[in-house]
Structures are given as C-alpha cells and as structure tokens.
DNA sequence: TATGAATGAGACTTCATTCAT
DNA sequence: CATGAATGAAGTCTCATTCAT
C-alpha cells in the first residue's frame, strides 16, 4: 500500500501559486480576479480558499518563495563591512538573484499603487529598500550617493527594460552588471 | 464687489484634473474611485461626467497637459542626427522635462498593470519608449546599447528613487544628470 | 424690412419634434436619450426643456399631430350606426389614416412596455382600443368577433409586417384592405 | 423528516427565470431591474449573477425554454414541401405552439426597441421571420402573399389582442385558427 | 431663446469572501 | 479536499431634470 510514496500533500497549492504568478505578471494583481485563477486551474473559487486564507496570501506565498534569494542576500549583506568591495559583490549577487526574483519585482513595479496598502506589498518594497540601503551605507557626499543609486538602478531596472534589446538574457544581464560595476568604481575618483 | 474677479465660467474642470492627479499619485489610478474624487471636490459623481466622458478621460487630460514637454522633446529629437552630442542633449532635456512630467510617469510606473489596457496607458508608454529609441538610435554593439540604457535609467528612475536621499530636488536632479552624461561619454571608449 | 414675413415663431419646436420622431422610431423611446436628440439637433439638452416640459411631452406633441386622422376617424365612427357597412367604411378609413399615423403606432408597438406607465402611452393605446371597439360594436357570437378582429389585425399589423414584401407601399396597403374587407364580408354567412 | 424531499441542490435558477418572466411580461424587459427581480425572490442582486452572467442571459434562458416548440415547428416546416396543405398544417401547429410561447412573444412585441440590439432579441425576431418565410414560400402574386400574411397575423396577433374578448382562451384560439385557415383557403380562388 | 453646470436616482456588473455540505 | 450558493460593498456610468444667467 501507499503506492504514492509519501503523499505529496496536494500539489494544488503549488499549482495555484504558479498560475497566479503567471496571471499577476501578465495582467496585474488587482486586475486578476480569483475567479480567473480558479477558472484557469479548473477549480472553484472556494477551492482557493481552502489553500489560502485570502488573495493577498497567495501573493505572499509567491513572494516568500521567489524572494528567498534576495532575503539571503540581505542577510549576507548585513554581515559585511560597508566597503566598496562589499558593494561590488552586493551588486553582482543582486544581479544574480534577480534571475529568479524578476517576476516578483515585475509585479511589485507594475502594481505598486495596488500593493501599497497590503502587507505583502510593504514586505516587497522593504526588500528593495534594504538592498538600496546596504548599497548606500556609509557614503556621505551626494555625488557618491547618486552614483550608487545609478549602479543599482542600472542592474535592477535594466533587467526589465532591456527586454526590447537584442541578445540573450544572460548576456544582457552581465553587460548591465559590468556597467553597474563601472559606475560603482567611478566613486573612487570623486571626493 | 466680488473678490472673484470676472466670474470665471467655472473652473471645475481644472479642479477635477488637479484633484484627480493628486489622488492618482497618492493612491493609484484604479484605487481612486470617482466617488473619492467627487467627494474631495464637494461635487457629485455626475458632475465629473459632465466635464469628462469617462474616468480614463480625466487621466488623458492630465497626460496631455503634463506630457507636453516630453512630446516637444520627442519632436525635437526626431529632427536631430543620431550623434553622441544629440544624445547628451536629449538626456539633459529629458531630465529637465521630467520636472514637470514626473507625477505623470509616477502614475504610469505604479499602475502599469492597470493602465495596460487603456488608450492613455499605451500613449504614456509610447512616449517613454520613443525617448528610449531616440537614445538608442544607430548604436549597434550590445555594450553600447546597455550603457545608453543605463544613462536613461539613471535619469528617469533616479527622479523617483532618490526621493529618499537628502538634498533638494534640483541638486539631485543635476547630480543624476551628471552621472548619466558620464555613462554616455564612456561609450566612446569601447568599440 | 422684416424680410422674414411674420416671424415663424421659432421652428425649433418642430425640428425637435421631427428629430425626436425619427429617433423614437429607429431606436425606441426609452433608448433615445434627450442628449441624443439635442446632439442630433446641435442644441443643448436645456434647449429641449425650453420647448417641452418633459421628455414625455415631446412624444405627446408628436402623438397629437400624427394621431389626428385617427381621432377624426373615431369621432366619425361614434356617430355612425353599428352596421356592417359602417365597419367596411371604418376599415377603409383606418387603413387610409394609417398612412400618416404609422410611425406613431410603430413607436407604440415597439415600446409598449416603456409607454405603459405614461399618459401619452395610455392615450395612444386608447385610440387603438377605441377603433377596435367600434369595429366590434354590437356583434355577439365569438365567431363574428374573431373575424372582426382578424380584419382589423390584417389592416393594422399588415401595415408594418408587409415591409419585407415586394411592391410599393400603396399597392400593398390596398391589397391588405381588400383582404380585410373580404374577412369582414364573410361575417354575413355565419350565424 | 423534511417535507422538502431530497434537498434539490437549489432551484434558485429556475425561480429566477420564472420570476423574471413574470416581471418582463408585466413591466417590460428594460423597466424591470435586477434589483426588482432579486427583491421579488428575496435574494441579492449578486445571487442573480451567480446563476446568470448578464441580465440578457436570463431572457436568453427563458427564450430557449419557451421558444422550443417554435424551434421544433421550424425544423418540421423546413422539411416539408411548400404546398397549401403544408401551410395549413404550419398555421395549425403555430397556433398550438403559441400556447406555450405566447409570453415570450409578448415580451418581444412590447419591447422590440429595447431588444433590437440584443442577441436574444435578434434570435427571437429571427424565429418569427422564419415562420413567416415558411408561410410565404413559393407564392408569387401579391394578392396571395398578402393573404398568407393576413392568416399568420390573425393567428399570431390574435393570440394577444383577443384577451379583451369574452370566452375561454382555448376556444378563442381555435376560432382564430379557423379564420386563419379560411383566409389561407381563399388563396385558391385568385390567380 | 438658449446655455453651462450640476444633481439625485438608479442601472448593470464585479469582486473578495463565507459557509454548510 | 473541494463545491455550490450566496452576500455586501463598491465601481463606473447614464439619465431626466433643474436653475441661474
């Protein structure tokens, strides 16, 4: 007996998550209704409520999963000294983490207004802000700060806006990172 | 008598526009209901419909007004040769245009998903894309392209994300522009 | 001077009436809004209210004008004895009156539900019923009654439903009247 | 216990249909709001939307149910030769079908303008036109055509307008059919 | 003779959520 | 593990009508 090894505890929850992710990305969080998610899955709305307490909960679960690399990066960052070398590494690791987390941040970006009031929205925003703070840590002169911002902006938003450029995603990612690092290095000259 | 000079034939239309702008920026387009706008103005919902045909129309009017500097910039850009000097100028002018258009693009950014289906959303997006195309015109190698993107990203998104940094807005704008121009200039070295 | 002879007292009222008639016929009474009528005329809604007290009033004016032939027929009918010959004449005159009144009855037919509550609706319905009563007057056996109904139905509804048939309107009208008269004559045989 | 036998999984859908039918007949389609239907049933408007996608959908469901006899008649008619005998039979069967379909056609007639734009309206109209075409099939001279129209008009509209006459419904229906058949037969003489 | 501005009522519809089964 | 049924709140929009100018 027990031909299904140790009963995978229902994959429905995961299917909900991934369907919701797809729809949130393509249509937006608010514009995606639970009815749509349920229909896309071939279940009833009530079924969603068996697996998640609220609509927000679905996004929270997605956020917890896709945001992990960024969380780990934050943990790592907090333990480092605020040197330029740390920041170079931070930028590189963030660029890398975005590979997985991009859909999540796409949702955040495109639905900021809608998520503003939601716990999950605040959490998502916090992560971005924290990365930004780690990047800015210690550096005082505005000229510096702005360069640090620029480097992060390049890596972060570049991930979304360079979709229209030719070339494969990984190549573009590296190119963006290179530019970001250069900007970072240029902070050495001033002040 | 009558401190209201020569009885303007009702400035309600403009008041709707500016109230709506405020609310769209602070709460988002979708999250702002016509009821709220009407209440904030002390009129009825129906009054809004006397002045604007639909909710989208209100945003369109705002977009036409605040987006004018960018439209003019586009017109200018199209008439220029695709030289580095043009791009430097383009970046500078765009930075400048953003002073007025920033709220508009803030709305676009934070409500992208919600505006995707709307005519006005497409128009807004188009403007951004066009600026981006003018910036990328003619330059082939990916390394170049990415730098051009980075420069624009810095100026565009910097306008929103540096709100958290100390310093007055105009100073920060100039600092961002300087970084952007530097990135642009660095395209000379490669290739 | 006074090239406009004795000032035609504003033809706007009449223009409203005829535009409204057109729209009521083509779209229905309820489906035609005052905004549409006003726009079609190039005036404002408020202008309509200068000439007519309510929307219903516009239809009432139309009804008074186009319904006159039927009113006259009713007056005539009431003064006649309830003989078969009277009914033949009644049918012929009604057929003739419909030439002018048809649009009016088209409105009544197609918007019966909407007009049920309205004074003008009741008045319109009354006219039809009265004609019908004049037609049925005096005749007792059901077989008779039904024939009389059939004759009237033929003339009345035929005016609308034979639009799809080939042939010019007047020819069809006469043909319908002939059939109606035949049916009427057939009442002689039974009983 | 439980006088409600085996707990029907909710008959609400049917109750909505029959309540709506009643109201559509007595007040008209447009004049009947979903609020009214809901209140009459003691449910909320949203409940209606659980069972039907739109207001029109409710009428469509009603139309599908009550219109079935006419649909069957059309199917039958299409398979017959265009002889006088067929037309006699068609008229008889149509008269019979109207017993069930009358409320439906009452709605169509009294709300024609309102239903013109609706899919269900077009479907309803089509049915009537098709019956009429089957009736007219093959017969050329206008005198014939008009007689055929008259016969159908008598049976169709007679069903509604003879409500005011004394006598029970079934008797009147037969009487109308008889007259209709006579008119049909009279087509033999001319030409 | 007409307009500009505004209103109050009400329409259809959609949504996230709940709960008994 | 999931469904069927229902709700309450809210949203966008349209309409006939009014009134000061």
Automatic annotation (TrEMBL), chains A, B, C, D:
DNA-binding region: 33-52
Entry superkingdom: Bacteria
Keywords linked to the UniProt accession: DNA-binding, Transcription, Transcription regulation
Pfam family, one: TetR_N
Positions of the HTH tetR-type domain: 10-70
Keyword DNA-binding in record: yes
Protein name stated in the entry: AcrR family transcriptional regulator
